[in-house]
Amino acid sequence: SEKLPIPSLLQTMVPAGYTALQEERLAMVDLGTPKPESLKNGFHREPRRHSDRSSRTSISMSDAGDGHYAETEPMLPECRLSGEEADKEEESVEEGQLQATRNMPKESPLAMALQILVPFLLAGFGTVSAGVVLDIVQHWEAFKNITEIFILVPALLGLKGNLEMTLASRLSTAVNVGKMDSPIEKWNLIIGNLALKQVQATVIGFLAAVVAVVLGWIPEGKFQISHAVLLCSSSVATAFIASLLQGIIMVGVIVGSKKTGINPDNVATPIAASFGDLITLAILAWISQGLYNCLDSHPYVSSLVCAFFMCLTPLWMVISSKHPASRQLLYSGWEPVITAMFISSIGGLILDKTVSDPNLAGIVVYTPVINGIGGNLVAIQSSRISTYLHFHSTPGEVPDEAKGCYYPCHTFCGTGANHRSAQVLLLLVIPGHLIFLYTIDLMERGHTSLTPVFMVVYLAAALFQVFLLLCISDWMVHSMWKSGKDPDSFSIPYLTALGDLLGTALLALSFHFLWIIGDQDSDVGD
């Protein structure tokens, strides 16, 4: 039978090993063929069966009340993996040896690059669109009169890394280790995580506004309560609405990746960011300007908007507490997202001070691009390393090659899967940014022409940012795993926040350097 061109193209991008693994899982579910799979860490993963579905459901629901649910347990093999008891039937020695040699699906660098390339470009054009939007709205009345909104921008865009990419990484790992093969288990996991994300988005949005007030007004001695309430309302409403929309899109991507056989680790985190920046910035600009217009005639509107979204928080807390995995993170998952918000807010302060200088106004359009690309690439690497550790190690133990003192060459020099992915991701930086720079230039946005000096300085800053992030990712994920924390929930918020801070700081330094050496063209896009 003839196949459609698009599905055929997608299938050519999928490693044969990964497709075979997905088909085997589905066959185990539908036919109930018992073939235990041995992992290097000594655990055994048993196949799913029709007869086990009811017991699996009852066990997964009873887990909620056992009080002994560890952060890494939802993603680990053995009984927790599928909520079923281990099968006691003995298999032949040949089958056992065959299964013992297979852990993770093999991916060639070309297949990996092809899978990453499309969502990477999609995410990049999303950040370009966000930069264009920010370049336009910086001239709106709300942004000109309440410049502290710029401090909110990296913190709210950082929610993509704090929440959406973290959700994508958790669900990608769940798919790869077979945690989402059961429909009931899958939807319990999805609904619990979405509700958890709404709680975190509302709280982080409120805290980001408080930080913006402190960083923006206290040092200058200026404070207006009406502007503070507007900041809180805009931040909370933007975080809530954007998080809900992106969460729904993210779940669709994960489920779709599973059905098509594409490794969700390669596509989920970039797509999580593809339109995330654009959606978040558009909502922030629209709500901020709308509330600013009501400030004089209806000053109570801002307070009502903030109160409405804050009052929904208990509802989301109740829903998220129903699933043991999200309930655990409801209590323990605040440290990384709050810390990441503070780190991103420092980047926002740098952006606010830089934008205030008319000579450096061109930084606005490039900030979401360099921050978004760096965050997307390091999130892919973090998700892949986390999946590797879930397959090959138990919490508290790291593979032999990761032991000892860390040094940067360890991230890029080698033939392992994580070394290859780091090399591929670093090689994507220069061509990716060139495409996005010329896209911005063709749209006649920004305030800086693409002179050779500007491009060299900008690309050097972008390459150095991603190099640092990939090195930090390798060290951080292994360190968190060694300490017993789930990297899917803890590493990406820190890494994307560091990406925001490094990107904004390096970009500001680049623009200062360009101004000092005389590359002072600021007429483009005015």
Q: What string gives the helices and strands in order?
A: HHEEHHHHHHHHHHHHHHHHHHHHH
Average pLDDT, all residues: 75
Give start-end ranges of low-pLDDT stretches.
9-19, 28-102, 522-526
Shape: globular
What CATH first level of the domain at 140-337 would be assigned? Mainly Alpha
Major beta sheet summary: 2 strands, antiparallel
- Rg: 24 Å
Question: What does it look like?
Answer:
With 526 residues, the protein is an all-alpha fold. The chain has a domain at 140-337: Orthogonal Bundle (Tetracycline Repressor, domain 2), CATH 1.10.357. Helix content is 72%, strand content 1%. The chain has helices at 5-12, 16-31, 53-62, 79-82, 93-100, 109-137, 141-145, 149-157, 159-176, 183-217, 225-260, 264-274, 276-293, 301-311, 313-320, 324-332, 334-355, 363-392, 409-412, 417-427, 429-442, 452-482, 487-517; strands spanning 37-38, 44-45. A two-stranded antiparallel sheet has the order 1-2. The protein is globular and about 60 Å long. One of its GO terms (biological process) is metal ion transport. It is a multi-pass membrane protein.
Topology:
Blueprint: H1 5-12, H2 16-31, E1 37-38, E2 44-45, H3 53-62, H4 79-82, H5 93-100, H6 109-137, H7 141-145, H8 149-157, H9 159-176, H10 183-217, H11 225-260, H12 264-274, H13 276-293, H14 301-311, H15 313-320, H16 324-332, H17 334-355, H18 363-392, H19 409-412, H20 417-427, H21 429-442, H22 452-482, H23 487-517
Antiparallel strand pairs: 1-2
Helix pairs in contact: 6-12, 6-13, 6-18, 6-21, 8-10, 8-13, 8-17, 9-10, 9-11, 9-12, 9-18, 9-23, 10-11, 10-15, 10-16, 10-17, 11-12, 11-13, 11-14, 12-18, 17-23, 18-20, 18-21, 18-22, 18-23, 21-22, 22-23
